[in-house]
Every structure is written in C-alpha cells, then in structure tokens.
Amino acid sequence: MNEFSSFDYLFDAVLVVNLKSEIVYFNHQANIFFKLPPRLLKQKKYVPQICDSNDLDIEEWLGKSLLSFDVLISPEIKLTIPHEQDLEYYVVIKLIPIQTDKGANFAIVFNDLTVEKTLHLKYREQLEELRKTHNQILQADKLTTLGELTANISHEINNPLTIAAGHSEIIRDFLMLPNIEKRIPTIQSANNTVIESIERVNQIIKNMKDFLHQSEDQKEYCDLDTLVDAAIEWVQPAATKAHVQIKKQIKIRSVALANRIKLEQVIINLIKNSIDALVESGKSEGGQVLIGLSKSDADRQTFIDVLDNGPGLSEEIKKNIFKPFQSTKVTGHGTGLGLSICQKIIESHRGRLEHVESKIGCHFRIRLPLIEVYSYTRNDRSLSGSKSQKKILVLDNEVQILNVLNTFINDEGLVFIGSSDPLDSLSFLEKANVDLVITDFSMPQMNGSDFAQKAREQGYSGPILYMTSSKNIEQYNKDKITLNVSGLILKPFHKDDVMKTIRTALKNKEGDV
Amino acid sequence: MKRLTINKQILQDELNVQLVGAIDEDSDFKELMGLEQKTISFDFDLVTMINSCGIREWIKFNEKLPPKSNIVYKNCPQIIIEQINMVHGFFRQGAVIQSFYAPYYCEKCGKEAKIHIKSEQVKNRKAPSADCPHCGNEDIEFDAIEAQYFSFLGKV
Questions:
Q1: Most buried of A125, A139, A370, A422, CB within 10 angstroms?
Q2: Using a CB-CB distance cutoff of 8 angstroms, which residues of chain B are in contact with residue A32?
Q3: Partner-chain contact B53 A115, CB within 8 Å
Q4: Looking at chain B, which residue has its C-alpha nearest residue A41?
Q5: pLDDT in tens, B48-64
Q6: pLDDT tens across A431-454, in order?
Q7: Do A343 and A404 belong to one domain?
Q8: ipTM of this complex prediction, to 2 decimal places
C-alpha cells in the first residue's frame, strides 16, 4: 500500500509532488478530474503538463509555495485542461506540506467549485431577468393608469387650449382695428392669458413625461406634502368628473427618502381605486377620499393614509388584496396588478403597505421608515462597520439642500444620513454612531443653536457645523466657544468649500483623539 | 450544454426510459412519476454530462420510484460509472446494472476505446478481455484501476 493511498478516498483530485515539483502520486479522483487514465497520468512529470490557468501562473505559484512549507490556498481560478479543449473548471488549489519517512512532499488538492460558480452566474442572470420583467410590469401598470386617466387629462389640456385659442383670436381681431394704441392693455392681458394657458398645458405634459420616465431605483429626499399634491393633481380631473371630493390632512411636514415617481404611482393607484370604488358602488355623489400624513415616533415611521367613504372591501377580497391579478373592478378596467405592485414598491423603500380595518369605507396605510434610519441602513457599507467610512448627519428642512449634500458627501465616499426634523436627529444621535453633524441654522421647529445645545446636553461630542447665511455669523462666533461648534458652511455653497470644511473638522476631531 | 430529454416507451409491463443530454440542476424527472410498471429500465447511453446538482435530482427521483418495480440500468457510460462509485444512493437498493461502458487501450494501434460490457462478464472485479474495435487486436488493456472502476458491482 502506497503511503499516499489514503488520498484515494477523497472526492477532490489530489496530486502529490516532491520538493523538485515532480508528481510522485495522484489519487483516483485525479484520473476523473483531469480526464486522464492512470496510463497517461503516470507519464506527466509536472503539474503544468496537466492543467493550466490564465488567472495564475501555477508553476511560479507552486515554486514560491514550496519554499514556505506551509498550508497555502490559491485564489479562485479558472483551470483549463490542455488535452480536453472544451473542459474548464473553477477551482481553489490547496497546497499541504506532508512529511514522510522518505522526505518532504506536498499534496496539491483541487477543490472543484465549477457547479457553484455556474449556479451563481445562472442565479445572477435570472435575477437580472426578473428585475427587468418587474420593471416592465411596473411600466405597463403606469401606462394602464395613464390610459385610464387620459380621457380626463385631455379635458384638462383642452380647457387651457380653448382659452389660449380664444384669446389669440381676440388679439388677432384687435390688431386689425384702428386706434390700436388704445387697446394695448387689453391685448397685453389677452397675451398673458395665452402664455399662462400654454404654461398650464406645458406643466400637464411635463407631469406626464415625469410619470412615464423610467428612473428606476433612483431615490432622493422628497417633501411628502408636495408629492401628495402632485398625485392629487393627476387624479383630480377623474375625481371632479365623478363628483368625488379629495381632501388632504397634513399633521406633519415630512420628508421621505424615496423614488418620487414610484411613490407617486402608489398614491395615485390608491386614490384612483377609491374613486373607482365610489363610482362603481353608486356612492360617488358625496364621496370623499382623504389623504393623511402623520408620524409615529414609537414605530419611527411616517404614515401616508388613503381613506374613502365608499363600500369598503369584502372579507374575501381582503384576504387576497395584495396578490397579483386580483381586481375588484369590472373586466377591462384595471390590470389587477396595482396593489401587488404598490406593495413591492413600498417594500423596496423598506416600508409596508397595509389595509387598515375601518368601520366606513376603505383605508390603506403606507408605512415608511424615518429618513435618518433609512438613509443610514440602506448603505450596506455603513452596516459593515468600516471605520474608514465616516458617517455625516445632515439636518435641513429643505429637500433640495439634502439632495445636493447627499450627492457631494456620497461622491466623496462618506456615508450621508439625511434628516429634516431636529427632534428625529437628536433621537438618532442618541442611538447611532455619527462622526459629524451639519445643521441648518434656521428651521421651523428649532434653530441650529438650540439643536447644538441639546445635542451637547445629551452627550454628543463630535464636530457640529452650522449651515447658514452670513447674517448668523455672530451667533456662530458665540456657539464656537460655548457649544464647541466646529465650523460654518455659508449658503450659497460650493462643493469644494463644503468638503474642505467637513474634511478639516473630521481631521481635527481625529487629532483630538 | 444540451438539456436533458426523456424518451419513454411502455411495452407490455416494462417502461423503457432513454435519457438524452446533460443531467444537471435543470433536469426534471417529474414526467416519469406515476408510470408504475413491473420493470423500469433506464438507458444512459446518450447522457453527455452529469454534475453534482444532477446527481441530487436523480437521487431524489430514485427515492420516489415505485418500490415494487424492478429497476434496471443499462448502457451506463464512464461518467455515470464514476459517479456511481462515488455517490451513495445513485442506485436504488436491489436495482440491476445490466450493462455499462469501460475504458480500454490498444497498445498495438495506440487508440482508446469504450467497450460495452455486461455486468455478468466481470468476475472478481477483473476486466473481461476485449477486442480492439479499431485494429481487431484480441487482447487490449483495461485503461483504469479495476478495483476502483468495478467497485459499483459490489454495491448492487
């Protein structure tokens, strides 16, 4: 029995080489793996005569590895077999030193990962295909929604166009009359009306283009109040036609980190479903759809509620409401995909869409995570705990400022955490590790100075930067001493100025440590 | 890689299944479920490849074969024999391997050949003698390790 014959029991191919890199043994699996019968494998003296790789110079790697006399593992490489041109393996090679009575040898073990690699690539391809299909369904649903709203939208376009056409005629007629000077104010007024009407049409077309634009997975900070308004604008013509009243109840001013168009699509779908239910049940006269915005501090979530005073949902429908192709509408109206798509969209925002039990009508609630938590956790790198990735909390009630700074800060490889509410920021600072805070100075709930004071009181010791105009410089000079405020970003700002201020403040903080 | 095709014929009380192509993660043997016959024979002659996922699918399927049926495997190529020798459960207990292929080498003409062998020809795990299909040489050499290659015969 050969001293290496125990390798015959392994499922991996094993070649044993001596210190001169000569093959002195191969196990049974090596015959199968290299597609060489023992008769031919015996004739091969060195490993590169059996297999080759463009990813690794096997001869050189073995040469270096043999010198160290230690267990070594190669990176994953693609292995080719010269005598079997179509054969390729993905392997990890392991080199194990073996000391025997006859001297030192090395077992080269070929760990075959081909199946795993193939499955992984296949899985990635299928996932990509699914993603594309999902986007196509999403787009198709948008087209359906648009198609169903088109009749009312064309009415919306026709009105200003009729007004513009009428006033153009007035201008034309007046221009042909004598004493034109006397009529100039009237002509100017008619001209303004034409411009306003065309602008209105332009706005409607722009909304349509925005809605259909496939800006998938592009998330930005958006003002939910504005977003709800945009959604209402879409369905308002259909509501007016059906004599349904749309009301808004905004308890908070809230910002979400969301794909604006997709979130708008969800709200449009929910409102449209309510209008359709009211119309189909004959309750549209006096019908109401209420859209509410509120926040739960306990759940750390923002709620968008859509309620109506329609017929509500039957128990049977409630059970399947989020399944695809479930529709309460008559055939030809609605794809039945709406709510299942809405659910997926909200889930992609780490939120939830749910049906809430109510005594009257139907009530859907969108739950979205507060932006501080979401912007912190969506960045996987930040979760990996990499110390080199500094986390910057930016507090500003203007979404445009949050979006600009988000781009600046992320571009520089730092983690951006957006916040629009000082109280949420303070609560977040208590729980999470933040390296630097930038706060707007003038905010409705509290000014930057009060915020800095509260942050210091609750134990935050990192750098704080104010972001304000030069009129608050005096306050900054005071807070620099009393609250250890590290710097000031003057509005309007440039990227270089912002990033330099951040980098310097972070560097000074590290210097302190 | 050609996906697995399953051809099947039922003649009297025997179901003949011919497997063509690669047995891998996409292989689905569902269409054979419920075709209970006294004898079920599997012909592997045209199987081109089998990987570990295919083996898993095959074993899962084997476990669901009707317990009362006689199972026969025939024309097993070298790749199948190599897997059988390594993997537990590839064959159902009591199944019969009627025939298979084995690698031979002719020293006279220098060519390799896969010789079709009936299981009963193998005695004590020794390769039966064979003629070279290329030059007619009457005593060609077995081109693998006999004890290992024929070890499956001890399993069934």
A1: A370
A2: 82
A3: yes
A4: B144
A5: 999 989 999 999 999 88
A6: 888 999 999 988 888 899 999 999
A7: no
A8: 0.84
